[in-house]
């Protein structure tokens, strides 16, 4: 396990109330596409990035609390929520670019990024592509740190997924899905922990355009064998960047074992496990979640990116993978602990 760095003194803050109007959706057109977002509060910037099929509405209960001490920006990723849903690039790299461009239009040069599920992968990708603009990382049930993922998502990545998702909109199907989810809750299954959120995701795909965007996003990161994008091979680059991992111990979408693997791969990271929580720990215990985020941002110093140190880390390479000559790299290839985790990294 990586060591947890000593925390600095907690800074004194003045809590600021948030007006209702600040929580309403706002819009910016970037590259010709409308991007929806919510923005509230004052102070250091905190960007909340939702997961696949979700939207900024998932943070509704948290935004007023976090906005007491932060400028909170919660976008609807392209293809999600109230943002446009074009036939476009829905890779995590493209999403990272989109977050950067939205922040730039809002006059925000750097921020702490908090990402959930797919949003965690986007946050990590943002930190990799734009380390000079990343102050801290908070990864919640994050994708991109292991191959395993819920079998339902693997199924939806297959050909014919359009028909499957369309069938969920047929008369009577909503009732059947609701009964199935209720049964999972009554049986106290891990998937049942996220029953309410699962129904919300089904409702978020009302038309063919929404379903197409969802499938294109999913196929960019998942295939029939599981997740196909990993950031584990470059997690060593988070050295010097405050990072906190938050997971539910009953997460049925991205298993909690991924949290421990990521914690070990990220130097100095902090790990927080929510007991009896599923894939949405910030819904299960929002008060604890907000307290953790506030403590983390208050007790850590924003990353101070150095081009020279970044170069040194890249030359040294990921621990255990080997650097130097091609012969050395080939000799150690079979010892690479990240080789079988996934097939490719986001670039």
Overall description:
The protein is of the alpha/beta class and 347 residues long. The protein has 13 helices and 12 strands. The strands form 3 sheets. An 8-stranded mixed β-sheet has the order 1-2-4-3-5-6-10-11, with helices on both faces. It has a two-stranded antiparallel ribbon with strand order 7-8. The model is unreliable at 1-15 and 322-342 (pLDDT under 50).
Please give the largest β-sheet.
Answer: 8 strands, mixed
- SS element count, helices: 13
Distance between the termini: 27 Å
| Low-confidence sequence ranges | 1-15, 322-342
Q: How much helix is in the residues?
A: 25-40%
Radius of gyration: 20 Å
Strand content: 15-25%
Mean pLDDT: 82
Order of helices and strands: EEEHEHEHEHHHHHEEEEHEHHHHE
What structural class should be given to the helix and strand makeup?
alpha/beta
Global shape = globular
Task: Walk me through the topology.
Layout: E1 26-30, E2 33-40, E3 45-49, H1 63-66, E4 71-75, H2 92-105, E5 111-116, H3 118-129, E6 134-140, H4 151-156, H5 161-167, H6 173-186, H7 195-203, H8 208-221, E7 222-223, E8 226-227, E9 229-230, E10 243-248, H9 257-265, E11 270-274, H10 281-284, H11 286-299, H12 307-316, H13 326-332, E12 344-345
List keywords for this structure.
36% helix, 13 helices, two-stranded antiparallel sheet, globular, disordered N terminus, 12 strands, eight-stranded mixed beta sheet, 347 residues, alpha/beta
């Amino acid at each position: 396990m990586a060591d947890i760095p000593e925390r600095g003194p907690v800074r004194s803050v003045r809590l600021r109330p948030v007006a209702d109007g600040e929580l309403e959706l706002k819009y910016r057109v970037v590259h010709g596409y409308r991007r929806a977002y919510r923005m509230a509060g004052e102070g250091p910037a905190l960007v909340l990035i939702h997961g696949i099929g979700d939207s900024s509405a998932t943070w509704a209960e948290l935004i007023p609390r976090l906005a007491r001490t932060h400028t909170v920006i919660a976008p609807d990723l392209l293809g999600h929520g109230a943002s446009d849903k074009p036939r476009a690039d829905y890779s995590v790299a493209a999403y990272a670019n989109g977050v950067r461009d939205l922040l730039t239009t809002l006059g925000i040069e750097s921020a702490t990024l908090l990402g959930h599920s797919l949003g965690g992968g986007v946050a990590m990708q943002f930190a990799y592509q734009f380390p000079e603009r990343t102050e801290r990382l908070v990864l919640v049930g994050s994708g991109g740190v292991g191959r395993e993922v819920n079998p339902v998502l693997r199924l939806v990545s297959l050909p014919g997924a359009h028909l499957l998702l369309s069938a969920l909109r047929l008369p009577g199907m909503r009732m059947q899905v609701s009964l199935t989810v209720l049964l999972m809750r009554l049986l106290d299954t891990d998937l049942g922990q996220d029953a309410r959120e699962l129904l919300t995701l089904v409702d978020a795909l009302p038309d063919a355009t929404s379903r197409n965007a969802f499938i294109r996003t999913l196929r960019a990161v998942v295939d029939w064998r599981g997740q196909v994008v990993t950031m584990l091979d470059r997690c060593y680059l988070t050295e010097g960047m405050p990072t906190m991992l938050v997971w539910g111990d009953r997460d049925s979408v991205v298993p909690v074992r991924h949290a421990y693997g990521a914690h070990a791969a990220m130097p100095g990271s902090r790990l927080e496990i929510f007991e009896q929580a599923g894939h949405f720990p910030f819904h299960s215990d929002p008060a604890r979640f907000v307290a953790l985020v506030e403590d983390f941002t208050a007790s850590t110093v924003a990353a101070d990116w150095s081009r020279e140190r970044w170069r040194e880390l890249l030359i040294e390479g990921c621990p255990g993978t080997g650097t130097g000559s091609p012969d050395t790299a080939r000799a150690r290839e079979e010892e690479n602990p990240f080789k079988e985790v996934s097939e490719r990294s986001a670039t």
